[in-house]
């Protein structure tokens, strides 16, 4: 591998390489015809004197500007750098950049997007490669927002607090009173969904930031109400309730909206990547224009590119198996509860962990009774495995999304002030 790398580094420059020494992008029609000489992915142009993709160009520039000191993962400085392994060893990747002819003389030092404070927080040895998530180009960056907008969520949080304090069990509903723990959670879920009808939805092509803020407020309230139907959750202190809530409200509402989208739009939701956003609005995830100009200098196209891999995984690894499995409302409620308490259990200890274990045991027994009664199915292990596989896939996507948002924070992608930022990890 090291010999072949040296041969590549000594090869004569191509016409494309000598047309420019700094950041020349290829036209769209030709970009797919050339490979990055560093990692063999599709090249975007000539960067720092070498035909390369933006990810490798960004990696080289950051290495120079931040004066990174790398160590070889295998300690022999002979690691293979290609499509599958370009992220595994930063030292060998950087050496290959140099061997191919990338030069620090072409790096524009005054365009570094990372502050000195953030540099100290960023680790190159944590197994996460920033270039794999953010394929950004400094040349595409516009002027920064000097005064980020402030969004006051105090009214929403007060409403959630009021829900936790004043929630009342529907004692007048005989169906609710007669059912078990899982049945009560399903009752709560179906209550939120009862007004959703296919003919009521319109596909929105654009979404404004103020609409997103309103949507977040409504979703947070619905999740809080849903969680209060768990006796174990109700018995926790207000502080413990909020600790769980801020961890899980985003992933739980994302799952609920995805399952609702499949229920309303069927196979079309999967094929067109449709996601319900409110009681009467849905969007096509890969085509909607989200106007975030007030909080970011990046275009909607650039932002969509950042989040596209996660969106694809959400539909391939969660939506597709959901559509194939066609779970009942009870099974969806079971998965939603598993998502909430698994995340809480992994993070919290003490009362929260004990409450979660007790609740999970209850709904597992309830699901067993459901399968025995409704399906006459004594051997349901295969179906249960499929349900939990979907849950685990969603949790992995959620964790990767959190990583991406941390990277976005390091790169100062979003500039916004929120009164309670702990409720927006994702």
TrEMBL record:
Lineage: Eukaryota, Metazoa, Ecdysozoa, Nematoda, Chromadorea
Subcellular localization, as worded in the UniProt entry: Nucleus
Family the entry assigns: Belongs to the nuclear hormone receptor family.
SUPFAM superfamilies attached to this UniProt entry: Glucocorticoid receptor-like (DNA-binding domain), Nuclear receptor ligand-binding domain
GO MF terms held by the record: DNA-binding transcription factor activity; RNA polymerase II cis-regulatory region sequence-specific DNA binding; zinc ion binding
Occurrences of domain NR LBD (ranges): 152-426
Keyword rRNA-binding: no
Nuclear receptor domain segment(s): 33-109
A GO cellular component annotation in the UniProt record: nucleus
Keyword line: DNA-binding, Metal-binding, Nucleus, Receptor, Transcription, Transcription regulation, Zinc, Zinc-finger
Name of the protein this chain belongs to: Nuclear receptor domain-containing protein
Species of provenance: Caenorhabditis remanei
CDD domains: NR_DBD_HNF4A
